[in-house]
Amino acid sequence: MKKAVVTSFLVFFIALTVALFSSNWWLTFINISFYIAQPLVIIGGFRFIYEKGFFDMTISSFKRLFRSPVERDYIDDEDDDETKKQWGAPLFFSGLIVTLLTLIFSYVR
């Protein structure tokens, strides 16, 4: 959760920096924040789904299908869940936080 909050503040800082050089800074701040948050939601969401193992069965089936018959008998799949670096959830949740806050900000003004 700490990474998501830090990423959200970083997005708002970047948007505020860009918005200060604009004549209509509030609207520019909201737009830039929203534009930055959307790729975070999309990329983080796909990565979050992948990290949770949604596609593991499909990937393992394709690996077994394209192996030679000798390899199918002797090689067992090894899962290295401990070595995976998980960064999908912080991106996804920081994108959601920024998106929801920009929607609220857009109705405030």
Mean pLDDT: 86
Count of the separate structural domains: 1
What is the helical fraction, as a range of percent? over 70%
Discrete helix count: 5
What oligomeric state do the depicted chains represent? single chain
Largest sheet: none
Low-confidence stretches: none
Taken in chain order, the helices and strands follow as: HHHHH
Q: N-to-C terminal Cα separation, in Å?
A: 29 Å
Number of strands: 0
Computed over alpha carbons, the radius of gyration is 20 Å
Tell me the fraction of residues in β-strands, as a range.
under 5%
Overall 3D form? rod-shaped
Structural class: mainly alpha
Describe the structure.
The model has no long low-confidence stretch (mean pLDDT 86). The longest helix is centred in the middle third of the chain and has 27 residues, at 25-51. The protein is an all-alpha fold. It has one domain. It is built from 5 helices and no strands. Helix 2 (25-51) packs antiparallel against helix 5 (88-108).
